[in-house]
């Protein structure tokens, strides 16, 4: 597909950047989720037992399909997130996410390790985030992506801003952009699994 036919997706510069992507890394809270942190506490009926606190995450099924298609089409994926969450680890396993780095207060070391293990250069990496801790990675990524409702400071330095809001299919939108720019979307669609 020509850049003219893809103009509805993104600028020629963004499409050129997307053509090079081999690794798609992303934050989790505020990108794959809406950014809410839902903590659920349980106690005994009489209130005498210690409270048990659980965390709940809500993931978008279209993001799951997008990340699954990325895997099928040979694009490696990774999560680099500040929170440690068994729910994120579980979702990553379900989607065959290649790299999972939880509890990363500073994300640069994980970013570099992902690149080294994937055997890619910075220009072959797409990174999607939503807030200030994502700025250092966005500044290095070949395709820096901010979600539609992300921090203005991040949006200002990113190459592309999603149309979708956090937790509403942003990863799917980016995977679709990459595969369409690479001319592989039509090949990917029939390989989608339920």
Q: In words, what does this structure look like?
A:
With 194 residues, the chain is α/β, with parallel strands linked by helices. It has one domain (3-193): Rossmann fold (3-Layer(aba) Sandwich), CATH 3.40.50. It has helices at residues 12-19, 61-72, 86-94, 108-118, 135-140, 152-157, 170-181, 185-188; strands at 23-26, 38-42, 52-56, 76-80, 99-101, 125-129, 143-146, 160-161. It has a six-stranded parallel beta sheet with strand order 5-4-1-6-7-8, sandwiched between helices. Strands 2-3 form a two-stranded antiparallel sheet. Strand 7, helix 6 (152-157) and strand 8 form a beta-alpha-beta unit. One of its GO terms (molecular function) is N-acylneuraminate cytidylyltransferase activity. Homotetramer. Belongs to the KdsC family.
